[in-house]
Design a protein that fits this description.
Thrombin, subunit H, 3 domains, Rossmann fold, ten-stranded mixed beta sheet, alpha/beta, elongated
Amino acid sequence: MKKVYDKVLSVSGNVISVRAENIAYEELAEITTSREKSLAQVIKLEEDLVSLQVFAGSRGISTEDEVRFLGHPMQVSFSENMLGRVFNGSGEPRDNGPAIAENVIQIAGPSVNPSKRIIPRRMIRTNIPMIDVFNSLVASQKLPIFSVSGEPYNALLARIAMQAEVDMIILGGIGLKFDEYMFFKNTLEEGGALNRSIFFINTASEPVVEGLMVPDLSLAVAEKFALNGKDVLVLLTDMTNFSDALKEIAITMEQVPSNRGYPGDLYSQLAKRYEKAVDFEGAGSITILAATTMPGDDVTHPVPDNTGYITEGQFYLRNGRIEPFGSLSRLKQLVNDKTRKDHRAIMDGMIQLYAQYLESEEKRAMGFQMSPWDQKLLKYGKMFEAQMMDLKVNIPLEEALDRGWEILADCFTPEQTGLRSELVKEFWPEKSED
C-alpha cells in the first residue's frame, strides 16, 4: 500500500524532510505540488525522520505539498525499443518519443559475483593508434579519461562510440552543456551509430541531483543487454560533475566533509559504478570509459585521485592528444600477444624513442648543439606526433603497426631501433633499406 503524507517539515536545497514510518533507504516518492509532480529518493533515515533528494530540484515545493511513497527504489524500463532513443536523468524520454513501460528493472543493484566473471581477453578496436597500439582497450575494462576543461574529451568519446567494435553504446551525460549533448547526438547520427546507441542525458541547465541517477540508469540497462549476449560500451561524461552533485547533497545534509568538501564515501560511490564493468561467461560484456575533468590539471584532486585506485589504468588527454606517458591500460598485456607478433615490440620501441625525442627537444629549446642522433630523434618525434598521436588519425591496428615500421625506417637504421632482428627481417620496409 502506498504511504501518503501531506506535511513537509523542511526544504533545504534540493532535500526535503518528512516524518513517515516503514520507509526504506533509496525508496522513491512522488511529490505533488500545485504545478506538477516530482520524483524524490530517500537518502537518509533517522527513526521516523525521512530525508529525500528531489531530482528536479525543490523550487516550487511548499510545506503543504503531498508526498506519496511508492514502495520501491528507482527503476528503469529495458527494451530493444530503447535503441536510438534519448532519455533524461530520471529515465523519461526527452526526444518526444513514446514512453517505454515494459520490462521494468531496478537500478543501482550489486556488482556481479566474481565467480560469474571471466578474465578479460578480448581487445576492443577503436582505430585510434594511441589506444589500439599503445594502450589497448579490453572488453570489460574500466578506464577514465583524465583531462582538463577545454580538451576534446567529448569528441574523443564520440569518435570511440562510432568506431569501437562493440554491439551497442550507452552514453551517460552528466551536466552536459546543450551544445555538447547535440554534438553527441548529431555525430552519432551522421556516423550511423545512433541506431545502436542509448542516451541518458542530464544537461547543465537541469538540476544537478538528477545527474546522480545517470550512471546507475546507464549501467543497469547495460547489464541487461550484456546478459542477453551484447558487448556494451558505456561512456560516462563527466564523472567530476557526478562527484560534485554528491558533494552538493553532502553539504545540504550537513555531513562532515572530507578532502575539499567531498563526502567521505566518495571512493565507495565511484567504485560502486566502475565495478559494474564485467565480462560474463557465456554472455556479453560491459566496458566503461568515463571522462573525468581535473580542476587545475591537478591529478591529486579527490575525484581523479580516488578514481585512479579503482580503475585499470587511465588515458591522459593533453594538448588535444592522448599522452603516451601517464596513460596506461593495465590489461593490454592480456591481448597484445593475440594481435600481431610485432605489436608489443613496436609499442615499447616507439615509446622509448619518443622519450629520447623529448630529451632532445628540451636540449634544443635550451640552445644546446644538436648531434646527428638528436637530429634523427627530432625528425622521429615530429612524425610520431603527426602520424600516430594526432586524434584525427583513423586507421586499423594492422595499418598503424605498419605505419610504425615506416616511421622508424624513415628516421633510423634497424640497429638503432633496438628491435629484435627476426622482427626487423619480417617487417622492416624494404624500400627503406637503401
